[in-house]
Design brief:
Blueprint lengths: L5 E5 L6 H17 L8 E5 L2 H13 L5 E4 L16 H6 L4 E4 L2 H6 L4 H13 L3 E6 L3 H5 L3 H13 L4 H4 L3 E4 L13 H18 L2 H6 L2 E4 L7 H5 L6 E4 L6 H16 L8
Parallel strand pairs: 1-2, 1-8, 2-3, 3-4, 4-5, 5-6, 6-7, 7-8
Bound molecules: phosphoenolpyruvate (PEP).
Length: about 270
């Protein structure tokens, strides 16, 4: 079994539906021009809610090899929850992924572990894949508890999932100090965290789960640091913030990841 790498762009609160349309057209052109092989690397976009429908229309009309998803989801399914968007609504727009537990959501919204568990369950129940974000802050790093902290976050959210549910999640290891800061984890420390998370999954679920769950790295990824990071055997791609707003840069990162699979990465389900 081999894990297909994923390069996912988290646009955050950027791009209205017109800008999103322009971006998708440019990205599709850049990837086509580079003879990008989508069988080797999946590319996904996570637009704001208001642009998802525009992305869907383009992907379907032009049969683009692009996945897409949302950046957040309600824990409730329907009813009097002003401003919320349900997992079923996202699924009916063709979303494959939903980012869950991003550090910016944990910080600016009342999203604690219990709420994040409910989001994960809601996303899975609607047939989509949660991308569960975990990662230590600068304080935890300084205290030397970075790995325990990130693994603990995975454990807190996944411990009651079945093997089948766990096999459908992705984990993004995103050290908070690296997000939007220009500081990036070294390949060694990204690998160490990804391996610790995978070992935790192996200890909790059956071997198939540990071997198949994709673990992404996120935090100031650019085309300048992507090559070294993707060479690490447990790093299965990237969640990209700032650099995903520039189509040339985002396409360059996707191409680096796609090329790494041609060399034969160690990214197999061991
Ligand atoms: C993110 O917000 O998920 C992220 C990784 O941001 P950036 O790439 O800008 O650090």
């Amino acid at each position: 079994m081999t894990r297909k790498p994923l390069v996912a762009g988290n646009w955050k609160m950027n791009f209205d539906h017109l800008e999103a349309t322009y971006f998708v057209q440019k990205l599709a052109w850049l990837l086509r021009d580079a003879r990008f092989d989508a069988r080797r690397c999946e590319v996904a976009l996570m637009p704001p809610f208001t642009a998802i429908r525009s992305v869907q229309v383009l992907v379907e009309a032009d049969r683009l090899d692009l996945s897409y998803g949302a950046q957040a989801v309600s824990v409730t399914t329907q009813g009097a929850f002003t401003g919320d968007v349900s997992a079923d609504m996202l699924s009916s727009l063709g979303c494959s992924y939903v980012i869950v537990g991003h550090s910016e959501r944990r910080r600016y919204h009342p999203e604690d572990d219990a709420n994040i568990v409910d989001q994960v369950r809601g996303v899975l129940a609607a047939g989509m894949h949660p991308i569960l974000c975990v990662g230590e802050s600068f304080e935890e790093r300084r205290e030397g508890i970075a790995l325990d902290f990130a693994v603990g976050q995975v454990s807190d959210v996944t411990r009651d999932l079945s093997d089948e549910q766990a096999a459908n999640i992705l984990v993004a290891y995103e050290p908070v100090w690296a997000i939007g800061s220009g500081l990036v984890a070294t390949p060694d420390s990204a690998q160490e965290a990804a391996r610790a998370i995978r070992e935790h999954l192996r200890g909790t679920f059956d071997d198939h789960v540990a071997a198949s769950v994709r673990i992404l790295y996120g935090g100031s990824v650019t085309s300048r640091n992507a090559r070294e990071l993707i060479d690490e055997p447990d790093v299965d791609g990237f969640l990209v913030g700032g650099a995903s707003l520039d189509a040339d840069e985002f396409a360059a990162i996707a191409r680096i990841v796609e090329k790494s699979t041609r060399k034969g990465s160690g990214r197999t389900g061991r």
